[in-house]
Design goal:
Belongs to the AIR synthase family. This protein has 350 residues and is α+β, with helices and mostly antiparallel strands. 34% of the residues lie in helices and 24% in strands. The strands form four sheets. Strands 10-12-7-13-11-14 form a six-stranded mixed sheet.
Amino acid sequence: MAEGATPPAYAAAGVDIAAGDRAVELMKAHVARTRRPEQVADASGFAGLFRLDTARYRAPLLATSTDGVGTKVLLAQRFDRHDTIGVDLVGMVVDDLVVCGAEPLFMTDYIACGKVVPERIAEIVSGIAEGCHQAGCTLIGGETAEHPGAMRPDEYDLAGAGTGVVEEDAVLGPQRVREGDAVIAMASSGLHSNGYSLVRRVIDEAGLRLDAHIDEFGAALGEELLTPTRVYAKDCLALAAEVEVHAFAHITGGGLAANLARSLPDHLDAVLDRASWTPPAVFPFLAQLGKVGRADMEATFNMGVGMAAVVPAAQAERAVALLAERGLPAWRLGEVRAGTGSAVLEGDHP
C-alpha cells in the first residue's frame, strides 16, 4: 500500500488518512508564520519543543490556559466561513494568559471533525496561525481527529492550550489593586466568542438567515456574527511595560461585572459608568430582536469591552493614550472604591 494511503477497512469506517496527510501539507505554510526563535525542531513530530532561556528571567513562572470557542463554530459551519474561527480560539486562550502578566509563548490546537476536508482544515488553521501571529506566540503543535459517526461530515469543533511566562514578582492580580485606582476599558471587536447559544436562539426564533443584509452592520448577518475576537496580548504587555498596571480582566462569558470582579480583592469594588461608552450596534440589535433585557445582556455579552486594566488614577490618561497609539480604542471606565469585591455598573449608555 502506498505511503499515506488509507487501509480499506479504515476507509470504509469513515477515516481517510490520506486526507489528513493532505491537510497537514496545506497548513504547514500557515504554521510557519508563527515560528519563534526559541522553537526547537522535533524530528519525530510527536511533540513540540520550546527552549526557555532561563538567563532572561530571575524567577520565571509558567502560566497555562485552555479554551475553545463554544457554539460560535456552529455559525461558522452554517455560513461556510472557516478562516476566522481560529483567531477566536487564540484570543480566548492567550488573553486569559496575559491577565496575570504572562507573555504567551506557544499554543497547541485540537480539531475534531466528522470528515477531514483538507481545504477546510487548512482554513481553520490559517485563522489559528493569524491569531498566534497577532499574539506573538508560536503554534508549536496540534492534532486533527476524524470522528465519523460521532460527528456529521460537515461538523467540527476546536480547542487549544497555551503556555506563557511571567516573573514571579511581576504577577498581576487582585493583590495589587488599590482604592482610588482607575479602570480602563479596551474596546471589543464585537461579540468575541461568548453568548452564542443565546445569539443562535434569537436569530433562529426571528427566522433570520445568515446571508441576510443588516442595515445596522452594513453587511450580512453572518459576517457580523463571525467577526473575530480581538487579540489583546501584545497591547496588554506593551501597556504593562510603560504603565504601572495592577490587574487585567478578560471580559468573556459572564460579562463585564462578573469577570472584572475576579480581579478585585474582597474589600474593594469597581464602580463602572455606562455613560462612558456606546455598545457596538450588534448588542442593541440582538437585545431588540430577541427582547433580551439589560441584565441578561450584561450577564452574557461583553457589551463592547473586551479587556479591562486597573491602573493608578494618575496614570489613567497615559494608559488610554498609549493604547490609542497602538490603534486600540480605550477609555476611562470607572474607579476602584471601598466595597465587597464586586464590579457595579451605574448610569445609562448614551
